[in-house]
Design brief:
Strand content of chain A: 25-35%
CATH topology of chain A: Ubiquitin-like (UB roll)
Number of domains of chain B: 3
CATH class of the largest domain in chain B: Alpha Beta
Number of domains of chain A: 1
Number of helices of chain B: 20
Strand content of chain B: 15-25%
Largest sheet of chain A: 5 strands, mixed
Largest sheet of chain B: 7 strands, mixed
Order of helices and strands of chain A: EEHHEEE
Oligomer: heterodimer
Largest interface: A-B, 31 and 49 residues
CATH architecture of the largest domain in chain B: 2-Layer Sandwich
Number of strands of chain A: 5
Shape of chain B: globular
Amino acid sequence: MVKVRIWGSLRSATNNKEFVYVEAENFKQLLDNLSKKYPNLKPQISRGVSVSIDGLIYKNSWFAPIKPNSEVVLMPYMVGG
Amino acid sequence: MSPLNNNSQARQFKVIGTRPPRPDGIEKVTGKAQYGADLNVANMLFAKILRSPHAHAKVLSIDTSAAERLDGVKAVITSKDFDRFSSGQPNNILENSIAHQKVLYDGHGVAAVAATSDLIAKSALKLIKVKYETLPHVTDVDKAMEKSAPIVNKGYVLENVPKGHSENVTSYFEFGHGDLEAGFSKAEKIVTRSFKTEATHQGYIEPNACLASMTPDGKADLWCCTQGHYNVRAVCAEIMGMETSQLKVTASEIGGGFGGKTLIYIEPIALALSLKSGQPVKLVMTRDEVFKATGPTVSSSMDVKIGMTKDGKITAGEAKLRYQGGAFPNGTVEMGAQSAFASYDLKAVKTQGWNILTNRPMQAAYRAPGAPQAIYAVESVVDELCEVLNLDPLETRLKNAAKKGTLSSYGPTFDDIGLIATLEAAKNHPHYSAPISKNQGRGLSCGFWFNFGGDTCVTLNVNFDGTIGVTEGNPDIGGSRASISQMAAEEIGIAYEKVRTIIADTNSLGHNEITDGSRVTFAVGLATIKAARAAIKEMCKRAAMIWNIDEEAVRWENGSAIPAGPNAGKFDPLTIEEIAGMSSQTGGPIAGHHEVNAEGAGVSFGVHLVDVEVDKETGSSKIIRYTVFQDAGKAIHPSYVEGQMQGGAVQGIGWALNEEYIYGDDGKLQNPGFLDYRIPVASDLPMIDPVILEIPNPGHPYGVRGVGETSIVPPLAAISNAISRATSIRFSDLPMSPPKVLKAIKDKQRGNG
């Protein structure tokens, strides 16, 4: 199981939990399993999210690996100028 | 082949870190460079767009018949001309380019004409009759949030918006950690202050321009000035109902973008006019149109509360950010809310952000979108606390600075970051201890930005004479052709002058993400290094064939293949010129390519130090001295890195002191031109002194971090803090234009301040 930090305003979709736990070995499995376990996350996930894995921010690399003890943080999809 | 060396600290560079002349220099200084408006083709028509005179109105009818009858007019279009390409809802880009049922801001496009001359096109606009029913409008961010505000654009409210707001509030974000109440209870001083910033335009010198040629069989060529021609292709193909492969987009030279040319405004109009007229169509915006209908950045209203102990430890921080981004939803406040406290190691922090619609043009990214406003507010309050508690502002920032192991305010734990090194550099710089004179103040601010990578394709061709051609797909807005050539030369081991990098059209490479997020030197550089390594591998293989030894027994050094060791055999090195010259005989032309979604860009920090002198009789502020400290990871071409640091500082100076969108009560923009919208010019400025720090990014083979955006983040607070200290008045409203500063000084003299 991977421990995932959820940002504040998204916690309404995770029963106000700051941390949730899902099975995931990569970015895609993380999003798929978060959507299954917490269906209210789906609208935000389909609009786009980034994921920080051990401090590195990934915008959409599905197969970025996640280790069981990785620090995983869900973040809004990053935009720049 | 030698093992790939990813240790940028151990590697001794030969080309990286040097300052060769810019490859586009002669074309640009002699006027030969081809910008968006410079291309002319046979039978080309000239297009103009009719724009709304109202801030908010229903479009009841549009009569184009008289314009169509005018001699020389070849096509007139309205939003209805796009209906046949799509049965669904118009996308925001199209609706922003040409209004559908409503005009949503002063300057919103309504109809467009293509004619045989610019003059005829202008005349035809006057013959188009539009009947409007004006509607109440709102341009102020706080008023737009009120329940009673006119609704700008229905249907965009996301599920995450708390109940009770106006429908103009389209999204809500919240970040942070820790117990805020407990944090504030430990504070010995708490400062709470509200801030406002006005919208500013990216201020690129080259107006948006394009030339489209579309044929009835659905093929089209498009030439335009843009930060991302692959995105132009994707969006325009969707709008025009085209297969992507049938739309070839070529990026012109670009006269500035700064995020503003990541959006699309005129290209779909030019394509539709070309299709309807059967002729190529050129469309060039006027400066008035650029101000009214492109960019600007968001304007904001913010509240910040920070608690501190007497010895300068921040105990808790809270920020509420309200950003308006014009008539369409945007994703800017979440970037600001994540950035606001990123420079600090905090036990308790909370940021909230609301994105809001108003009757203004659709906001566009502007260097580190969302971060300058939020960090301006936070850094102003930190400085005020330092002043009130009689603390050194730099030492206080060092005491609270984020570092490796800090749980960031936006969620992840930081790895190696350069903030403390950057603050130390500022502390040890002569600027920090230099004396200042009467009516002068010294201001300081930290800044932060994320930086990105993204989809990137590079092809590197080894020519028969051993020179290198690099083909990449990102418009060069900051000197990337030089830095990409340097990385190719470094990796292959040849002189910089042997490499030429070009920007390909959309049919020549796979997809490349927009030139944004400070991504190009990082991501395209990474792909170039990998492409060079692929070419080197092939050249080693060809040498092995010639020597009749195993491929693994050959390594690459200083632009030549050599035997890997004594057991490989004794052969004279084969240079790249020799291998390339024989390539036809050894299997064919040699190339390397690399396609990647580059991740691992790495965040960056900057610290700005500024001395400002305030004329207390006029309220005018003059920048006396300005020093920028920024972590570049590894500066590939230091002159360009310094240019980015200086450019960001100058744009921030404009934002802090003068630049603002001014709307009248009628919702119309009052200052759509550079006479009334004042950007800094050379005579306003001292030399901006850049100090590059190099804390390598482990995510790039040479340690590169993005540098293009962070530099616009600190100036707003640094200058505000300087003016506040010079006048002993805390300012919280940008820009700090002379009338505003003078009023504050007079109010204080009268005892009202």
